[in-house]
Amino acid sequence: MRGKNAFNHLYIFYSFIFLLNVVHVFWSHPVLYSIIGMLGVVMVLINFPRADRVFKILGVILLAAGTFFFFSSEASVGEIPAFFAGNIGLLFLISMLPWMNSVVKAGRYNKLLQSLLGGNVKGMGSFYVRSEVTMVSLAAFLNLSSATISQELLKHQLEKVKTKVKNSFIAMSTLRGYSLALLWSPLEILLATSIFITGANYLVVLPWMIMIALLGFALDASIGKILFRKHQVEGHTGAKKDLGKNKKKLTQFISALVMFLVVVVFLANVVQFDFLFAVTIAIFPFAFMWAVLMKRKRSFIQIGWPTWKKHTNHLNNFIVLLLALSFLTETLNASPYLEYLQDPIVALEGSPLFIMLFIQAAFLGMTLLGVHPLATMGIFGGVSELLMGALPEVTLTILLASCAIATVPSAPYGLIVTITSVGLRMNPYEIVLKNLPYSLLLGFLGVMVSLLTLMIY
């Protein structure tokens, strides 16, 4: 009983580590970073027995691979704690997500959003298109928070549908819609990194990224409509009427989300905070002020506080996965095996199409092996001069960004897949298999559009 009570107060320990991570943002000291990493190791030890079986297996595999890369590198044992600190910021972000969901519930906007998903639905085929559009709209404003909000709404809307069909529907429509929003968002870190590597102008790249997003949506919406056409879903007949009565509330909701986007842009571009950190620290103050303006402060606290504590106390799967992944990524970067990944680029010099297809395959292959697309982007960044000698900067930007973002719905250890896996209680590899054809298709669209720009630039 005493041990169980201790687990109910883990949020205090985690909050202390998150606070140290905030301090490190403003005071970047290697000793502090190592302390954060040591506490990260403690987090893994506490949560490994509590993690689901799938995440235990993934954690062991990642730690074993990381250990192999560590012994092949020249890194010292004293550096090991720091290798576990890299993804603490991601855990902090995941911990804060319930506050945005809570203000949406406190303002009863979840019912408003549900009206976007309901109303005169002829079948799950048509509902798939509507769900994907809603997800794209939400992801443009809420980023990762959009996944939890949309998935909760869809679980409620599809509660009478068979679990297997329901989970497939949610895993496909939300993750694919999420990736389509990332393609053109100036706040997306993968797009921003590709622009940083090449030095291309965002406004020149933007129309091409929107083209890829529109083509991807048109193809996937058509496929989803066919795949789910035989299944039925109950619609709310009065949804359109209710939505008509709530135009003012819908306007308020969109205005609030735009304002949140403005706050994040200000913190990221003016204050020069890292994007993920900007989103993380903006969530609670913004949600609180939103609740105050709606005169829903009490409801917000009543819903948010217990939800946040429970959510933070049960970060066990995320902790095992993300901190083990941090160890793997850091040891790989320190290993001489990293150099072998750059050799094929040199061999393909002078063949633009083969370079493009190799880049697409590399992003997808590395992602399936557990390497974050940002790490793969860093590898290509190391040979950026060579790549820009073969491809114009606009073409290379579109190629890197689209191929990287295409892997998001199929990344077994990615944040959005992990959130979906935990929320739906699905094996992450099951989600990967459902979205892998889409990732191949979207990446190929990126290659085709890149080829088109090669003729223009």
From TrEMBL:
Question: Can you tell me where the transmembrane regions are?
Answer: 7-25, 31-48, 55-74, 80-100, 175-199, 205-228, 249-269, 275-294, 315-333, 353-375, 396-416, 436-456
- Does the record bear Signal in its keywords? no
Q: Which UniProt keywords apply?
A: Membrane, Transmembrane, Transmembrane helix
What is the name of the protein in this document? Uncharacterized protein
On the tree of life, the source organism's domain of life is Bacteria
